[in-house]
Amino acid sequence: QQQVKQSPQSLIVQKGGISIINCAYENTAFDYFPWYQQFPGKGPALLIAIRPDVSEKKEGRFTISFNKSAKQFSLHIMDSQPGDSATYFCAALHWSNKLIFGAGTRLAVHP
Amino acid sequence: GAVVSQHPSRVICKSGTSVKIECRSLDFQATTMFWYRQFPKKSLMLMATSNEGSKATYEQGVEKDKFLINHASLTLSTLTVTSAHPEDSSFYICSASGNQGAANQPQHFGDGTRLSIL
Asked: What is the pLDDT of residues B65-80, one digit of tens each?
């Protein structure tokens, strides 16, 4: 089963708050888990990524937590800003080099 | 680094016209390029994968005669939507990755092409 489930579908956070987006996968043939940020009318931009042998990766305000046994991973955005308002996609890279995307989360950060 | 340029950004044309979209990797050699289609408020749907110098591999349900893909060099892939009709209107996005054979290579995306068929 090549599927990545992402939740929530939409998220509203106050400025300065923490945004949390969750993803789960079933296929153990995935070996790389990137997160993409997409603004309206633009292509997705690679935000941060993690490999399955690491449980956490932090880059600035963005952190990925990865639970290999539960086949779950999440994105945390600390000190969320209005400029973070965008659609976020989790993804999983299959050994065939295909990226499987989650359905996306529309984040709105209110001032 | 890892910049992917897509052109044009927007196309409006009449039904029956063929439209070509270019995808270029500007600062790396893209051994593999991917073409996606995205409907409003939806996720990206992979249409096809192309490796430089070989025929593209199309996903199930994607018409290869409708969506012609050429990957003639390590920096350029093109998608031609032949005899486009209104149902082909969509946001088309390309991505590129380098170092074929190496594991865990990220895909870098272009800014997409908004295709509107009247």
From this structure: 999 999 888 899 999 9
User: Quick one: CA dihedral A49, B109, B25, B107, positive or negative?
Assistant: positive
Structure token digits, residue B35: 């073409």
DSSP state of B86: G
Chain-chain contact of B104 with A89 (C-beta, under 8 angstroms)? no
Residue B114, min C-alpha distance to chain A (Å): 8
Q: Which of A47, A4, A39 is nearest to A22 (CA)?
A: A4
Structural tokens at position A39: 């603004």
CA atoms within 13 A on the CB side of A48: 18
Residue of A nearest to B43 (CA): A103
Q: CA-to-CA distance for B44 and A44, rounded, in angstroms?
A: 9
Closest CA to B81 of B90, A100, A69: B90
Is A109 exposed, middle or buried, given 0-12, 13-18 or 19+ CB atoms closer than 10 A? buried
Tell me the pLDDT tens digit for each residue of A53-80. 999 999 999 999 999 999 999 999 999 9
In tens, the pLDDT along B83-96 reads 999 999 999 999 99
